Amino acid sequence: MVWFTEYQTENVGLTIKAKEVKTINSKYQEIIVLDTEEFGKVLVLDGAVQTTEKDEFMYHEMLVHPALIKHPQPQRVLIIGGGDGGSVREALKHKSVEEVHLCEIDEEVIFVSEKYFPSISSKLRDEKVKIFIEDGNQFLEERKNYYDVIIMDSSDPIGPAEVLFQESFYKKVKSSLRKNGIMVAQTESPFLQEKYFKNAVKEIKKVFKYVGVYTGFVPTYPAGMWSYTLASDDVNVLDNVNKDRLDNIETKYIDEYLYTNLFAIPKFIKNMIE
Ligand code: SPD
């Protein structure tokens, strides 16, 4: 048994006991797979927990479904990051979706996920899915006016992912969306990563007309409190529409009630972004 600690801030860590630890060094990062009693398998990239078998549904459902439900008819979906496949799996639950493009910079994350996280990566080879091993920033340059929904399933804004949280990047996202397009981004922990959270929302607001921030619970992420930001130029993402679509989607976290009250977020968080 070994104790693994993710140093979430300079002063706070998350420590999990692991029965087994596997380390793979890819071209881009250190990938660790922990086998734990409490969370099942845990995927760690450069020291930060990305997903665990036990709580991944909390993150992936909240990241993916609100954007797809708010879009009038999502057919073309792009996921940037998310090589573990959790967001792909959730996006494919929407019947109108015809193609899902996954743009992941590190192919090794996909291989590791397919080997150790079959329940998360189960749909990566679905016929509707096309995988691009590319830098998201470059990828968008070549795809203008194409997607209905773009999902930013990135790691934290440190190192290579930093650029994915900047105004210049969100402008590219906007130009890759077609009419009625919606973007959703994971925007960090408002409680323990206030600076990253506020900055991401500020940059998104510079680019899109309609922006909505919501929160959810992910036990293995900093403070267990996570944020997501929806944005569009055509669809008022704050409108509470199409909630009956959830009837046809199997979920464990989000339901009609939660979706209807998606933007009922704590007051201190509203104050940070107003
Ligand atoms: N602090 C970790 C944030 C990770 C967010 N993305 C995770 C990707 C899982 N699909």
Short description:
The chain is an alpha/beta fold and 274 residues long.
What does this protein structure show overall?
By secondary structure, the chain is of the alpha/beta class. A hairpin with a 7-residue loop joins β11 and β12. The mean pLDDT is about 95. The protein starts with a strand and ends with a helix. It has a seven-stranded mixed sheet with strand order 8-7-6-9-10-12-11, sandwiched between helices. A five-stranded antiparallel sheet has the order 1-2-3-4-5. The longest helix has 15 residues, at about 55-70. The chain has two domains: about 1-50, Spermidine Synthase, Chain: A, domain 2 (Roll); about 55-274, Vaccinia Virus protein VP39 (Rossmann fold, 3-Layer(aba) Sandwich), CATH 3.40.50.150. Helices cover about 30% and strands about 30% of the residues. α6 (about 165-175) packs across α7 (about 195-205). Bound molecules: spermidine. Spermidine binds near residues 48, 87 and 221. Spermidine (SPD) binds next to β5 and α2.
Descriptive key words:
Spermidine Synthase, Chain: A, domain 2, seven-stranded mixed β-sheet, alpha/beta, 274 residues, Rossmann fold, binds spermidine
Mind sketching the topology for me?
Blueprint lengths: L1 E6 L5 E13 L4 E7 L3 E6 L2 E5 L3 H15 L5 E6 L4 H6 L7 E6 L2 H10 L1 H4 L7 E5 L2 H6 L5 E7 L13 H10 E10 L7 H14 L2 E8 L7 E8 L23 H5 L6 H7 L1
Parallel strand pairs: 6-7, 6-9, 7-8, 9-10
Antiparallel strand pairs: 1-2, 2-3, 3-4, 4-5, 10-12, 11-12
Helix pairs in contact: 6-7
Bound molecules: spermidine (SPD).
Cα distance spanning the termini: 46 Å
- According to CATH, the homologous superfamily of the largest domain is Vaccinia Virus protein VP39
Count of the domains: 2
Q: What structural class do you assign from the helix and strand content?
A: alpha/beta
* Distinct compounds present: spermidine
Global mean pLDDT:
97
Assign an overall shape: globular
**Main sheet: which strands, in order across?**
8-7-6-9-10-12-11
- Examine the secondary-structure arrangement and name the CATH architecture of the largest domain: 3-Layer(aba) Sandwich
Annotation field: number of helices:
9
Radius of gyration: 17 Å
Order of helices and strands: EEEEEHEHEHHEHEHEHEEHH
Q: Regions with pLDDT < 50 over 5+ consecutive residues? A: none
What helical percentage do the residues reach?
25-40%
User: What's the number of extended β-strand segments?
Assistant: 12
Strand content: 25-35%
Major sheet size, sense and barrel closure:
7 strands, mixed
| CATH fold-level topology of the largest domain | Rossmann fold
What's the CATH first level of the largest domain? Alpha Beta
